[in-house]
Amino acid sequence: MDTVHRVDRLEVDVDIEEVARSLGYVRGEAPKRVASLIAEAQVQAVNLLEPRCVYRCMRRHDLSHSPYLYHVDAVALCLVTIGPRLEGAVEAYKGEGDLSRALVLDAYGSAAAEAAADAANAIIEREICGKGMYCSPRFSPGYACWDIKEQSWIVSALEGQTLGVSLTEGFMMVPRKSISFAVVFGESPRESRHEHTCDVCGMVECLYKRPD
C-alpha cells in the first residue's frame, strides 16, 4: 500500500454554466437575477473555498475487503473537500431568510467540489501516466453498484480526519462539499480516460448527467 499523499491547495476552475445547470437552467438561459447571484457567489467564494485532497494508491491484496474493488489490480483512491466555510455561509443566509442566495451559493459549492475533484484527478493522472500506465475515468461510491457504505473504509484508509472530513451514520461526508473517488490504473489501454465520466457511465436516467 502506498503512503497517503496530500495536496493542501488545489487549483480549481468552477464552471459557471454548470452552476446554472444545477439550478435547473439550460446553458445561457439563466435569468439576469440568477446570473447576478451566481456572479456574486463566485466573488464571495474566493474567501470561502479551501480545496484540498489526499490520495493513495492501493493494490489488489489491499482491496480484498471491498466487494466492489476486490478484483481490481491497482486503484488510486482520493478524498477531496472544499472545507466547511462555504457551508457555513449558506447556513447563515438561511438563518437570515435569504433562501435565494443560500441556494445559489450551495450550488456554487457543489460545482466547486466537482472542480476540485477534477483537479485532484488530473494530479493523479499525471503521476500515473508519467509511469507509462493508463487511467480509467474517476468514479465514486454511491453510484452504479458501488455501495456507499464503503465510504467508511475509504475515509479511514485516506486518513480523512487530516482534512477535517468525517462520516455521518448514513455514510455521508461532513463537510458535505466533499467527494471520494477511485481511478483504476494499469498498463492496458482499455483503462484510458474518456472525455468525461458521463461518456461511459451506464446510469442513463441520472439527473446529474452532463449534456453532450
Please tell me the overall pLDDT.
88
Q: Might you state the CATH topology name?
A: NADH Oxidase
By CATH, the architecture is named 3-Layer(aba) Sandwich
Morphology call: elongated
Total domain modules: 1
Instruction: Spell the H/E element sequence.
Output: EHHEEHHEHEEE
Broad structural category: alpha+beta
- Describe the main β-sheet briefly: 5 strands, antiparallel
Strand order of the largest sheet: 1-2-3-7-4
> What is the number of beta strands?
7
CATH class: Alpha Beta
The total of helices stands at: 5
Beta-strand percent range: 15-25%
Helicity, in percent? 25-40%
Taking the alpha carbons of the first and last residues, their distance comes to: 38 Å
Uncertain residue segments:
191-197, 202-208
Report Rg.
18 Å
